[in-house]
């Protein structure tokens, strides 16, 4: 058994727990209950910390700043591997092929078993990667495009003189004047229109590689005394290319790019590879085309070769196996060349999971964050098998999970709760899944054993319609869809069917349609990336509270205004952390971390500010209150009470007012955004877009969320969402079922109508699940 | 079971092996047989590679260049932790305390439980570390010393004028002249003696923070035309401090340091800590004094507190436990402040091993490289217990080991052999230790089950004596020892007794004694750090072979001289790798690695050079021969034959002539050095010093080594060595037994004389082992 004692990470209350090794262990509990704090924050963090400490002084040096978690003891815990959703920040260079290591195999296949043009020399596998010197197209250095400056791009208006700003790419202000003065000192005519200057002179000014230094006698400007100085000239091309390739500022680089002409590389035609590599084919296709095929198609193409002897058989069989793992996890529609940043977090995690099936790791603990995210109920069974395979290979599997079908398949269950935040943080049950039947306090029990009846679809009557016509995008081809306004519409379909794509098309159409007011996307991205944003700033509550403090007698006596009580204003905040409450720690190769401020210890304010009290509490004390505690404290302040009530209604009463944005889970952030909307004045004619909003939510949380979405509709808004969660689908007024499959085999509208109609008429995979769910009511 | 199939790392010949998990597994075999290639190169490397690949994209990026080992499959292998001797390169900032993590505990103890001066504020534990801003002495920034420039240090001879070079710290050549010219331009008198310049002027020249820019009209020098230029002055202090703190060149920094006066910091007196921290004590001592105590003394001091309630009891008990682990592994004499680079590799590995006892790791495989190195037979039992504890904590332990007492205690034995290099690389046996009895081909069997009789001490008569008198160094206090010349003397005693210290004293005494000719230290350090040094270059064999190639008809026709056949000369070598045969790869945070050269594929030569053949072989072919193969090939070339014969005699017939120095193990390097000495002309009156020469050697290798050492003595040399290996000790002419313990409890001469005399008369721990060994003969 893996045993933890005295776990106190985040809201965990001195937790003791024992879970078996060599098993699939599910961690459940409502959002904010502390299940991630236990599975990731305690068990995984401790395992990682220990192993890296032991494994190498190098790793230790690298991770020096990573603190051990707050736990008295953890025993029997093997080294762990986390496949987490939230933290995964794939680099823009990585792709499905690189993450799954299939790119390497494909390159080896082309290198060793490819068909070469007659007489061509065999190429090394590196020659098939645009990211190696051996493989990069020599013309564009593997970029696929050429960046050039031309006279036209640098001097868009040749009727201007140099003094009038002919060289548009020159920086403004002093630096531009400097260049002009230097050209003057070099004897160029600053006042003739550019087009009248001799060609050779124009060429030199724009393109010379020389960097002459001359003494400049600046032109007098009224009221300024300017001395002669030595100035160095650089050509316009030189300056632009330097800014483009060397500047560390995004803005500067973007500005420079505006003066570059970009053209597809004439040698590799954008394929980034050297021509010799592009001439090698397997099964008739060059590597670029193989990598562009959806995994399922590629697998079908390779299949006939897998029985061959020698490297061809070995390599294609290995690839086919890995491709099959993608398909099993519902990712058969992805191509190897798909860039990692375009994947959803659920897709990315399942891609990593599929890759682990072939990693050969033994004796480790995999810790997963809701691997069912984005997965259609039809694919849940395959997910359960995959987890069982990792276990059969000699590992343990810990999953934080909300999908009851996956939870039911686990060997062991740890239920955390009963509530969220300070109301949670205890282990209610740890044992075989069935034992949870007897645990009265568990919010999970009900959903696991007696799924509550879904409130029926109200079948609201639309107030209008948003017409999407001829949508052609990703896998949607010339699709027509009507989105009814003033009701709740859900888009269904397997992963890759085109749900997100349809949401994107609706957003664009709504922006151009006068019958829609605002378009608001409510997603699970953080409220902010720094501790400077928090619940109180995001909801406007802090503004209300600051005024209360500024109105106290002592504040007025001292002349402290409301600004003084903002930690974003210098006068009142802690000077060390500048009001962040924490200090940013840059870690090499690791995401930035935040350490508590050594001076204000997280209070964010300077000592003088903290001398002002409102009803006996300092501003820091108030920010430390939970929503539930603040509600009575501020009950008589209408502006505050309204916000607090809505926050309680969306189930966030346990959050602290000053809880920094980075500490909130995706589900919590989503509900804060919803609360802000519910509190918002203008809700009618608003279109709310939500992409799989129940991701990361316990079924109990999904119930709360569903109720809030209907409140928005009741207030006159339109809700359009993509979703798999059946209890939410059942309440929708209208469904749009996409399918039948993912990728090229999806993207069609199979059925539309009320849940009952779609369940009865659609040929897609959602219908039977929906029908079963509706019957169970 | 952990199973490997098709292992082909280095000399491994398609090895298949299965070893149990949860066991202590010993890997044995003669030096060069391939046991490290199997345990470290295959099993550990594969486990590490897989885990880091899975654990994080960051780690993967970092280790991109680290290739997977050559093996078809490894299954059932958990993540691994290597405690290896060879690669451990501790940073100069680390110490026994930081490696063992005890420094942190000690700081927490002082911070929370220390005695503070009346009224003093409690300090954070960081305040007790000179490496943190909170703890560093503010005067010397935690350096313990102050570096200052003074007029005296910058101008050692004030009778000189500036032109004559008064400012000694000025750089020479152009830069010095430049500074002088600037001072001239600024109106200073360059020809008055320094001491006659006004004080204010001297002060300005040496110490000003200003950096004025002036136009310099350089003094005419005959034959050179020099134009006026703009020069910037920097004071002498500024230049020296800049060079000292910023230059990346060691030499420049050393030069600058010569102009700095270094004085102990008057605030912390060299203790590097801020005064407030030094005033806090525990058990009456400040942290600096606690850290300077040997582990055993510190444990005794803390013992009375371990039973207390609260943090004092917890922290002291934790420390006491960790200190006990040091003692068990024979390291009780080390203090926490002992700098890591002063530890022997054996001490360092055992320190890491002791630290692992408290790491809490579970389910990993520890891979150790001869943990018995440097350990007295009396401490072997404790080492076996420690390995068993790691196993009992849920781990597997793989040890490459030569000490038969440790091997006998293992649960499983993998014997690799039968010979070395191409003559080895097979698994002769894998199973419970006792099963090796039936394996005829094993070199290990004999030593494990029927230790061969030691050849008796010949008790040679000394030809003279080297007198050490009043030796006071480390733990030796006023010790007198006579080292007899012309015989083999061994120094004995537990780890830390003072053996190495005595060897150092003997080296110094010998250098001053005319009866000793050369002093040669034969250690296990690499022959060279780059692939440019190899067996053939080190032994001079390459010089002989180059002449053979230059003397061929074709070489003479083309005018290729002997230099052409050196890969260190531009004309003949591969231009890509410049003759290294490999390309250096810089890895962030990792030791530098070498990849094979893509152009010459390791042959090191350019194609033209390889067109010359001697007896049908190119120079690259010859360098690829093993010593055994080269012996008949070059039998008729006396200079080559001599070297090759000696290499065969020291048991290195399996090495390739061109085998790069970094590929040789410590034991192999040591034997190459011995071979070079045996081949050397002037051996008489030479004093050979060897510190535990049997480290890393199989008992069969130690037999060969012992014979070679006696050959040196027979040729008139003196051999003085420190050693634990009983079969070697038994052959010594003379023993010096130090003890009785390590550190302050050691350093005394307990007995001297023949092995029989010392075994009978010494009160130290070596005597009973030696007596038993002599009896067994
Ligand atoms: N980095 C953090 N610092 C402080 N509190 C946190 C942090 N992350 C999460 N929390 C809080 O800890 C509690 C448990 O969070 P978490 O373990 O993420 O819950 P779950 O995984 O059950 O949704 C919540 O109240 C959450 O707001
Ligand atoms: N950014 C993108 N770049 C390329 N293809 C994409 C991108 N986003 C989605 N696709 C493709 O469009 C199809 C539909 O994807 P998506 O709309 O994300 O489906 P769903 O939301 O139903 O999972 C899939 O084949 C997917 O691979
Ligand atoms: N980095 C290397 N490259 C090539 N050969 C090596 C390398 N390291 C060791 N070898 C060779 O492989 C053989 C086995 O070495 P090793 O496994 O270190 O033996 P052992 O541990 O039994 O002493 C020896 O012939 C050795 O010279
Ligand atoms: N470089 C050093 N700095 C400080 N102390 C040392 C150093 N080297 C050895 N000592 C100390 O001197 C004593 C004898 O050590 P050493 O000569 O290495 O013993 P042995 O060779 O018998 O193991 C020990 O107490 C050891 O800690
Ligand atoms: Zn190109
Ligand atoms: Zn602060
Ligand atoms: Zn100091
Ligand atoms: Zn080369």
TrEMBL record, chains A, B:
It comes from the Bacteria. One of its GO terms (cellular component) is cytoplasm. Keywords: ATP-binding, Cytoplasm, DNA damage, DNA excision, DNA repair, DNA-binding, Excision nuclease, Metal-binding, Nucleotide-binding, Repeat, Zinc, Zinc-finger. InterPro entries: AAA+_ATPase, ABC_transporter-like_ATP-bd, ABC_transporter-like_CS, P-loop_NTPase, UvrA_DNA-bd. It holds the Pfam family ABC_tran. Residues 466-765 form the ABC transporter domain. SUPFAM superfamilies: P-loop containing nucleoside triphosphate hydrolases. This is UvrABC system protein A.
